[in-house]
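With this grant's support, we have settled on a layout for protein records. One resulting record is reproduced below.
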Amino acid sequence: MNKRPLGKTGFDIAPIVFGGNVFGWTLDEKASFDVLDAFVDHGFDAIDTADVYSRWVAGNRGGESETIIGRWLKARPGVRDKLKIFTKVGMDLGEPGHKGLSEQWIMQAVDASLARLGIEQIDLYFSHFPDDEVAHAETLGAYAKLQQAGKIRAIGASNFNAAQLGEALRVSRVQQLPAYQVLQPEYNLYDRGSYDGALRDLCLREGLGVVTYYSLASGFLSGKYRSEADLGKSARGDGIAKYLDARGMAILDALDEVAGRHRVKQAEVALAWLIARDGVTAPIASGTSRAHIESFARAASLTLDADDLGALDGASRAAPAAA
């Protein structure tokens, strides 16, 4: 499988990253192991998770996804060397002080993530959300200490806008601190406004790697949700109603057209559009079966021509976000 440089991290990844938010949520441990086995068997090599996954499930406290990944790694000797593991810090874990991007919390949180994952070094450690109460210099200084200790390899920012990311990069240059080398934005054929424009321009100019989340718009871009009657098809259905507008239907029509030409699934086209997009290194996508992983492999090998890209871009284009 063709690999792509992930910004200036120094490592390459396959063109689709597995989204580990499903572990401990819609997948139990046994099913998670099976899907992860299939993911690696197909030549993929990057897994994204977070310390907060999957706290939103009744009875969970956060860390369930990391724990499942760690148990899978322990049960598969040698597989760790084939993978890049991404995780995140900053979301509220429900205890006093267990949130944000302060040095004190980062130093504590990273050790907890390493313990759950059962690894010695995190390949890519993300600031999950910007923290307006903590200076960039404090956060980046904490990451410098973690890099020096060998606990993390590279750092990224998730959910930062252009102004926040630009300021963080400025501080890293002025104070000679580690710089964010990867951005993780929400981005897909429907949700384009927050990344297209100033933020994408910044990433291209600075050479950042970009791994997108909600790459299939919570499953809407699979084409299985066409009306409100379809919303009960999955646990994510309630969040999909917002896509059932005229623009959403136009995007589905374009996906149907392109998928029909290539004899593939709509979701495969939606992922292939992201893979082909200048300013995107790899989409993050979640799967709950081996069939989904096989679909990822088809998406990774799908080449869209100018007519395909034009149809998709025309149906999905949104106004650029403000800086």
In short: Residues 157 and 263 are 37 Å apart (CA to CA).
